[in-house]
Amino acid sequence: MNNFCRRLTRSRAAGMTFIEIIFGILIIGLLIGTMAPILNNFMNQAKMRKTDTNLQATKVAIEQFMSDTGSQPPLLDDLLNRPSDPKASARWRGPYADERSLQDGWGAELVYTPGQGGKFQLYSWGKGGEGSEETVVSAFTD
Q1: Which of 29, 59, 73, 137 allows an S-S link to 78, with CB 3.0 to 4.6 Å?
Q2: 32 Cβ contact list (under 8 Å, min separation 6)
């Protein structure tokens, strides 16, 4: 009888009970639940900074294109590839940007609208994309 009690005590002490396992899973779940919003906020801030950096770089590329060719690029693609306009093509010294710098932090293309007299608009629709609640992230209007 004494051996039976020892075996019973030893087997209970060797493992974990179901309640202990559930309690451990609950603690891990709570930790993940509190860290997820913080991590999500951090990721969104990083994407916003990347978007701002890409907007700055693209603005400089457009200004360099205008300095070299004497005209605005009709499309952002003209910063990457020789334009179809023969006059601008003859003075083109590009590429002025790479494809990744023409995208925002969420992978969407930056929006570029040429204007009159060397003015242009350059912006990103932001996290939600065009027409979302979170519309323009950053913009340059020269």
Answers
A1: 73
A2: none
Strands 120-123 and 111-114: antiparallel
> So where are the chain's domains?
2-141
Phi first, then psi, for residue 52 (nearest 5°) are: -60, -40
**Average pLDDT of span 39-66:** 90
d(CA 52, CA 106): 12
Whether domain 2-141 has CATH 3.30.700.10? yes
Counting Cα atoms < 13 Å in the Cβ hemisphere of 110 gives: 36
Instruction: Give me the chain's average pLDDT, please.
Output: 81
- pLDDT for res 2: 58
Residue 47 CA: distances (Å) to CA of 33, 40, 83, 138: 22, 11, 30, 12
DSSP track, 76-109 = GGGGTS--SSHHHHHH-----S-GGGGB-TTSPB
Q: Which residues contact 137 (CB under 8 A, 6 or more apart)?
A: 48, 51, 52, 104, 123, 124, 125, 126, 127
